[in-house]
Design goal:
Layout: H1 8-16, H2 23-35, H3 37-44, E1 53-57, H4 63-77, H5 79-82, E2 95-100, H6 103-113, E3 121-125, E4 136-142, H7 150-163, E5 164-175, H8 180-198, H9 209-218, E6 221-227, E7 235-242
Parallel strand pairs: 1-2, 1-4, 2-3, 4-5
Antiparallel strand pairs: 5-7, 6-7
Helix pairs in contact: 1-2, 1-4
């Protein structure tokens, strides 16, 4: 997927949330928003349009919250200059709950949002297999489930489904295990990232795309697939809406 690229003022605004959280957090945010096509796709294709209550599982330093809040601010204040004319309006968050197991990431996220108490951002330190999820219009899981064993993956999907409102949405990005060489390259990168961030080696449990689709359809979702290969190898974004 070539996709739309995000405007520089939006990337700058979202990255700026992390200046108080340290240089590592700021540089990571800036590089990720430039290089990962999922963030531009979420806005350019209106994938979270109309969703006000979002739960982000494995949220890291809360980059999705910074992205959506900054998008709304840019759209409202600089619409004619910075917002692409062919992009729909961004979602207006009333609540964002991010759940993250890594305490360093949690600390960065909390520091980034302490200066904006009106943003309704909550960062929870915990395991997505155990922590309670609040009611949501959308659940987002980006590149997370393959770090869990197969039964835990299915439990998280069940829990995500049960927390969604009627016609709720699940955005799930996965690596397609049937993706050939690009998949194996992306898996190697994932293992290296985990080793750097967690200081230990974790096995990855990956599935082919058709297995993920089957799991979601069995739980009442209508699923469409969006390739996310620009800079992210064999990744696929699953847009799954409750029937």
């Amino acid at each position: 997927m070539s996709g739309a690229s995000a405007p520089a003022p939006l990337i700058g605004a979202a990255s700026a949330c992390y200046r108080g959280a340290g240089r590592v957090a700021w540089h990571f945010a800036h590089a990720k928003l430039w290089g990962d096509p999922v963030y531009a796709a979420i806005l350019s294709q209106g994938l979270l349009g109309g969703r006000q209550r979002i739960v982000d599982l494995g949220c890291g330093q809360g980059l999705l919250a910074a992205w959506l809040l900054s998008a709304h601010a840019v759209y409202a204040s600089e619409r004619q200059r910075a917002w692409p004319r062919d992009w729909p309006p961004p979602p207006a968050l009333t609540s964002y709950t991010g759940i993250e197991i890594n305490p360093r990431e949690v600390a960065r996220a909390r520091q980034a949002f302490t200066l904006d108490p009106g943003s309704a951002v909550q960062i929870v330190h915990g395991d997505i297999r155990d922590v309670d999820y609040p009611a949501a219009d959308a659940v987002v899981i980006l590149d997370v489930l393959h770090y869990l064993d197969y039964s835990a993956q299915e439990r998280v999907l069940e829990r995500a489904r049960s927390t969604l409102a009627p016609r709720g949405l699940l955005l799930l990005r996965i690596g397609d295990a049937a993706g050939g060489v690009p998949f194996h390259l992306s898996r190697t990168v994932d293992k290296a990232v985990v080793l750097l961030r967690r200081r230990r080696w974790l096995p990855l449990r990956c599935r082919p795309l058709h297995d993920w689709q089957r799991l979601l359809v069995a739980r009442g979702f209508r699923v469409r697939t969006l390739p996310m290969r620009a800079g992210t190898f064999a990744n696929v974004l699953l847009h799954a809406e409750l029937a």
